[in-house]
Design goal:
Elements (H helix, E strand, L loop, with lengths): L2 H7 L9 H14 L6 E5 L6 H7 L3 E6 L2 H13 L5 E5 L13 E5 L8 H11 L5 E9 L15 E2 H11 L2 E10 L3 E9 L1
Parallel strand pairs: 1-2, 1-4, 2-3, 4-5, 5-6
Antiparallel strand pairs: 5-8, 7-8
The structure holds S-adenosylmethionine (SAM).
S-adenosylmethionine (SAM) binds next to loops.
């Protein structure tokens, strides 16, 4: 049982994607990138409601995660709701090659936990087509800032290093949104193209 299986055994309640934000994101994606996105992939879906949010909007949804416990819980909900447009794949994003096609790829609150980030991002780059978008949402820390334990830096990645790595791998990286919380927390949404 990996660390995440243990966490999901206790039924953590991770928050869904904010619906106002999701609407804004989809409006922007339809205007700038793809007028009719149909397929979405959620990297590190956990038991999040994101899968069901996109499913209700009519997307063909694929959720990937390496936690068997999380995937079993989602599968149970899929069956209870008689949902037909969500498929689940068990995969370790740090080491297993992904070969999926989609219009929207989402990775929300997962990136920090992926050990081999370069491997993961290069893999994502290969999955993107010209009209795909990769939405990366992650807590970040900023160089030169002093943090305390309450700033939850254990779930954050270095902002400058992340931008550098993204720019090395992708041609177009937009810092679309910051959620500034508390004294120093910063949750960034990157919109990334092939
Ligand atoms: C904080 S949870 C976020 C889940 C979901 N995206 C959400 O927003 O609620 C982190 C998720 O990343 C998954 N994860 C962490 N490392 C992973 C890896 N190397 N491969 C696949 N999934 C991973 C965990 O199993 C867990 O479901």
């Amino acid at each position: 049982m990996n660390k995440w299986d243990k966490i999901f055994s206790n039924n953590p309640q991770f928050k869904p994607l904010n619906e106002h934000f999701l609407n804004l994101l989809l409006t922007k994606i339809k205007k700038d990138t793809n007028p009719s996105p149909q397929k979405m992939v959620d990297f590190g879906c956990g038991t999040a409601q994101t899968l069901f949010q996109f499913s209700k909007l009519g997307f063909d949804v694929t959720g990937l995660d390496f936690s068997e416990v999380a995937l079993n819980k989602v599968q149970q909900k899929i069956e209870e709701n008689k949902t037909t447009n969500i498929k689940l794949i068990k995969s370790d994003l740090s080491s297993e090659k992904i070969n999926l096609e989609a219009d929207i790829f989402l990775c929300s609150w997962v990136y920090t936990f992926i050990d081999n980030k370069e491997f993961f991002l290069k893999n994502v780059a290969q999955c993107l087509h010209d009209d795909s978008i990769f939405i990366l949402i992650t807590p970040v820390t900023h160089q030169g800032t002093s943090y305390t334990e309450e700033d939850k830096i254990n779930i954050a990645v270095d902002f400058e290093e992340t931008i550098k790595l993204l720019n090395n791998i992708f041609s177009n990286v937009e810092i679309y949104h910051h959620d500034y919380i508390g004294f120093r927390e910063d949750y960034v949404t990157f919109l990334i193209k092939k």
